[in-house]
């Protein structure tokens, strides 16, 4: 049962990743692209967590944590730059 749920979740996250990348490419507005790029990074974090559970390795969890923190900081910086044309 665990394998079925794992493969279904992995397939669903892969489909969502493809849709998110297509959204980053196709969207015209900068705010929409920032949001879509943040969504893509969150999907990548979810895929890393699934992969860490499948391999029983904590290294992928560490990578997921670092990626989520970097994505959060990048999203804040991009949103501030988009809104006020300055980062700090």
Provide the fold topology.
Elements: H1 2-26, H2 30-55, H3 59-84
Helix pairs in contact: 1-2, 2-3
What is the general shape? flat
Provide the helix percentage. Answer: over 70%
Structural class: mainly alpha
Domain module count: 1
Return the average pLDDT rounded to an integer. 91
Tell me the number of helical segments per DSSP (H or I, 4 or more residues long): 3
- Relative strand content: under 5%
CATH topology, what is it called?
Helix Hairpins
The second-level CATH architecture is: Orthogonal Bundle
How far is it from the N-terminal to the C-terminal residue, by CA?
50 Å
The total strand number stands at: 0
- Helices and strands, in order, run as HHH
- Give start-end ranges of low-pLDDT stretches: none
Largest sheet descriptor: none
Radius of gyration: 15 Å
CATH class division: Mainly Alpha
């Amino acid at each position: 049962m665990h394998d079925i749920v794992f493969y279904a979740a992995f397939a669903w996250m892969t489909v969502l990743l493809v849709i998110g990348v297509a959204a980053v490419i196709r969207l015209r507005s900068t705010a929409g692209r920032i949001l879509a790029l943040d969504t893509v990074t969150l999907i990548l974090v979810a895929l890393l967590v699934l992969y860490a559970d499948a391999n029983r390795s904590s290294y992928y969890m560490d990578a997921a944590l670092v990626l989520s923190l970097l994505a959060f900081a990048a999203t804040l910086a991009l949103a501030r730059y988009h809104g006020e044309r300055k980062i700090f």
